[in-house]
Amino acid sequence: MAPPIPILAVRGSDGTVLLRGPPNCEKNADFQRDPLQSRYVAFSKDGTLFAWCNGEKVTVVKVADGSQVRSFDLPKTAMLEFSPLNTVLATWQVYSKTQDNPQGDANLQLWDLKTGTCLKALYQKKVQGWCPSWSDDEKIAVRSVNNELHFFENNDFINIANKLHLQKVSEFMLSPGNQPSKVAVYVPGSKGAPSFVRLYQYPNFGGTTCALANKSFFKADRVTMLWNKKATAVLVQASIEVDKTGASYYGEQTLHYLATNGETAAVQLQKNGPIYDVAWSPSSTEFCVVYGFMPAKATVYNLKCDPVFDFGTGPRNAVYYSPQGHILVLAGFGNLRGQMEVWDVKKWKQVSKPQVPDSTHFAWCPDGEHVVTSTCAPRLRVSNGYKIWHYTGTVLYKQDTPTGTELWETVWQPFPDGTFPERPVKYQATPSELGSTEAKPTQAYRPPALRNKPVTASSKLVSRGGPGVRFVLFSVGIQLFSPTCTVPVKTYSFKGSSLFFTIFYIVE
Question: Where is this region: Disordered (predicted)?
Answer without folding.
Answer: 430-449
